[in-house]
Specification:
Length: 801
């Protein structure tokens, strides 16, 4: 056998491709934009887990090239953000310097994958030529009334010393550093993403995305339908508006709860209750969001005041509790303990009456042990008794509206996006504050507004960014009236650049437009987006919002950025532990590439498990993949000059191989594509034992393998005498007719006498044929079977006694 020398082969083809890159666009019919989520250039470099996504997207891109598409497959850097800044604080190195070093290093590592990125399209979010447009979008949003300032309590990470968007708070903790998030009152820049809530929700239908991700987005937007109901207060002027999604349960509302932050919370407390109420409100304000979310036991305090249930006119006590959120609905709720879990728990704890108003068959359960949350028949509900609760749910809002005590409403969980950060390493927000003119955007022709050099990168912790210290930068003149004015010193969140970078790749050198009309029309949007599922809400929601806005102002003519989405699972270390430097379980690709070659590692990245699931890295497995490549290499080398005419069997196996591999690939079942290659390789090796294998079958196998193992495929393609690249070929199509198995007619004998025939596929094995034969002659098998004989292709003989 010829030894397969991966080192020599890979070195040779890298050089060839450097001199003659794979032709990815000339004369191709239509474009296909295959995009990776661009990486943050961290200092620790790539491990085998990072390779997975890049290999998947490269395989997919190369497959599309062979399918005749013009491929757009760019790469860039999401390089603003905290790690570079924290490194600057620790080491005193300017973030732009460490970022440039990290980019160079990761770029070198990415090149080891042999992916066909088009580096002419490269972008870097920290490059002023790029962030000019990030700022331009902000100015456009400001002019459209979508960017506004607001003094409000925001999520504040005490460790990162910066404000956070709701999306960046996970279970009450900072998404980045894990510290419990607190609230802080600060002037903020906000983006009105809520104005797009309905479109962001409805257009999910257009997307070929994993259902799981679509569900996460629609839950995050959280549209609900219900009613606002006005409750009059006993002996007071004010009314309290509540938001409910269950207007059908109004007769069962036995108490009311206000959020501690509700404007009336302290005001309506009676003299006896006042100090208790104030105490509770104060304690709630000191609680971190984690504690508020995680408190198992319900707490609350009675105000001493009563509201009047607008339907049955009963008095309902008003309580304060922190399980009601201030910024959702109206910050006040009517409580129906019989039909809501939280209210049930609260009522039990504080001995509040529970009135059932919906029952399964209309029969009341006198001792409910938990809230009844199903639909049913209305009871204890006056004029609604006997109605189906679903009908009541539909009709009650209209009835309330007619009586002037309520109205139908919808609500969203989505909040406007807190867009300012009190940190250094981000895009300066291009706004000037003028005493006379208010907030004035930096004129578009003066963008980019460069991030100035500072001496100290430390966040001040006071809620001001380090930029506030650079007086010569901060003090400027108003672009509108010329009076002395001050620059905004907050910077943008890291999501700003990543919300639109995919548009810029295709026109990355254009200094006059974000992207030209022609290029946008010809090359956008993204057809396939590949990346981790951790971005399901944040980045993917923000990108959709930005794209819709850019659509609305005429920059692009589509309003969804990513037609298809694929989320790859993570590759973990042993025992499923996430690979990380701190755990010391990081597997570097470098040695593996050295020992087994890039092709083997590419294939093994896919072989470890279904690409959408997390997989555990087991280094030993790469050996099997390496052996497979070796065997295939030898099969081609040994048969390349034999000039064998294809047999029917060879044609059949070839077509079946094309069919199986293509089908699995189209389904993104990439691990079974690899096992499919292994099976067919064995079949081809068997076939070749009778004098060799025909050239077309060898060529077909090489083309199918080319997206996966491009070096060795290119080498073998050349060995077969081709002077052009294998990537100039067309992905083969299976001929369904040629795939059919021949049928064999086999006579069946019982005790040596012919009793019938059975027809079976030529490939069927002995057990299958005997079993089928026995079915055919079942009624003639009148004794016990003592022996079953099969003479291959000729006869089945069953001996009975
Ligand atoms: C009465 C009721 C009866 C309710 C019942 C539910 C079940 P979603 O679907 O999340 O919109 N609610 C309203 N505002 C709230 C706030 N600020 N904080 C906490 N809870 C609040 O849920 C809306 C329901 O959550 C509303 O409907 C209200 O309780 C509660 F059998 O009203 B419901
Ligand atoms: Zn002015």
């Amino acid at each position: 056998a010829t030894p397969y020398n991966h080192k020599e082969i890979e070195k040779k083809w890298r050089k060839v491709w450097e001199e003659h890159p794979v032709n990815i666009n000339d004369g191709k019919k239509s474009k296909y934009y295959c995009l990776d989520m661009f990486p943050y250039p961290s200092g620790s470099g790539l491990h085998v887990g990072h390779w997975r996504g890049y290999v998947i997207s490269d395989v997919w891109s190369r497959y599309k090239i062979l399918k005749g598409y013009y491929i757009i497959h760019p790469m860039g850097w999401d390089a603003f953000g905290l790690p570079a800044e924290n490194y600057a604080i620790k080491m005193g190195v300017h973030p732009s310097k460490s970022t440039a070093e990290n980019v160079a290093n990761i770029k070198r590592q990415i090149n080891e994958i042999a992916a066909i990125y088009d580096w002419d399209m490269e972008v870097n979010t920290t490059d002023p030529a790029f962030y000019k447009w990030t700022q331009w979008i902000f100015v456009k949003m400001f002019k459209a009334g979508l960017a506004y300032e607001k003094e409000m309590p925001i999520n504040w990470c005490p460790d990162c010393k910066t404000g956070l968007a709701n999306e960046e708070v996970v279970d009450g903790s900072c998404e980045r550093c894990g510290a419990p998030v607190t609230k802080k009152n600060l002037r903020q820049w906000m983006l009105k993403i809520t104005e797009y809530a309905d479109r962001l929700l409805e257009d999910l239908d257009k997307l070929e995305w994993p259902e799981k991700v679509k569900k996460m987005q629609s839950d995050w937007i959280g549209k609900s339908y219900g009613a606002e109901v006005d409750f009059a207060l006993e002996g007071r002027e004010e009314t309290i508006k509540v938001y409910t999604t269950r207007p059908d349960t109004l007769y069962g509302a036995t108490f009311m709860v206000l959020a501690p932050e509700h404007v009336l919370a302290a005001q309506i407390a009676t003299d006896e209750q006042k100090s208790l109420v104030e105490d509770y409100i104060f304690k709630a304000s000191m609680k971190s969001s984690v504690d508020r979310l995680q408190d198992k036991e319900k707490t609350g305090v009675f105000t001493g005041s009563y509201a009047i249930n607008p339907l049955n006119k009963e008095l309902v006590p008003i309580w304060i509790s922190d399980y009601v959120l201030a910024d959702y609905g109206t910050g006040a709720i009517m409580c129906v303990p019989a039909h809501d879990d939280r209210d049930f728990e609260f009522a039990k704890k504080f001995n509040i009456p529970i009135i059932q108003v919906i029952a399964k068959e209309g029969v009341e359960n006198p001792d409910l042990t938990e809230a009844y949350t199903e639909p049913g028949i209305m009871i204890n509900s006056g004029e609604f008794n006997g109605m189906n609760s679903l009908d009541a749910k539909r009709d009650v809002p209209g009835i309330l509206e007619a009586r002037g005590i309520g109205k139908k409403t919808t609500n969203y969980k989505l909040r406007d996006w807190v867009f300012s950060r009190q940190r250094y390493w981000g895009e300066p927000i291009p706004i000037v504050h003028c005493e006379h003119c208010g907030a004035v955007p930096v004129p578009e022709d003066q963008l980019p507004l460069l991030l100035p050099e500072v001496e100290k990168y430390q966040p001040t912790g006071t809620g001001e960014s380090p930029l506030a210290d650079i007086h010569e930068w901060v003090n400027t003149t108003c672009p509108a009236c010329g009076a002395p004015a001050k620059r905004e010193t907050n910077t943008m969140p890291q999501w700003a650049g990543s919300s639109w970078y995919f548009l810029r790749y295709v026109d990355n050198k254009n200094d006059n437009e974000l992207v030209s009309k022609e290029k946008a029309e010809k090359l956008l949007p993204v057809d396939m987006y590949i990346g981790g599922v951790e971005h399901a809400v944040l980045h993917l929601l923000y990108s959709r919002f930005y794209t819709k806005f850019l659509h609305d102002i005429g920059v692009v003519d589509f309003d969804e950025p990513f037609t298809k989405l694929f989320n790859q699972g993570m590759i973990n270390g042993k025992n499923g532990i996430k690979m990380s430097k701190s755990k010391g379980n990081v597997v570097s690709p470098d040695d593996l590439v050295q020992d087994y070659g890039c092709d083997s590692l590419r294939l093994y990245e896919l072989f470890v498990g279904p690409p959408e699931l997390d997989s555990e890295w087991d280094e030993r497995g790469i050996d099997g993949v390496y052996r497979f490549i070796n065997r295939f290499y030898n099969l081609v080398m040994e048969n390349k000059e034999k000039d064998v005419a294809p047999t029917k069997e060879m044609i059949k196996i070839r077509n079946k191989m094309v069919h199986t591999i293509t089908e699995r690939l189209e389904n993104f079942s990439l691990n079974t594509v690899v096992s499919g290659f292994m099976e067919y390789n064995n079949k081809l090796i068997d076939l070749s034992k009778n004098g060799g294998l025909d050239k077309e079958t060898l060529e077909t196998a090489i083309i199918l393998l080319a997206p996966f193992i491009p070096h060795v495929s290119s080498e073998l393609w050349a060995e077969l005498g081709h002077e052009t690249s294998v990537f100039e070929e067309t992905w083969p199509e299976a001929d369904e007719n040629a795939m059919k198995d021949d049928e064999l007619e086999i006579p069946i004998q019982i005790n040596g006498k012919t009793k019938g025939t059975v027809s079976v596929p030529a490939e069927a094995d002995k057990d299958e044929i005997i079993a089928k034969a026995k079915e055919v002659v079942a009624d003639k098998l009148t004794g016990t079977i003592v022996k079953e004989i099969y003479v291959p292709g000729k006869i089945v003989n069953i001996v009975i006694k």
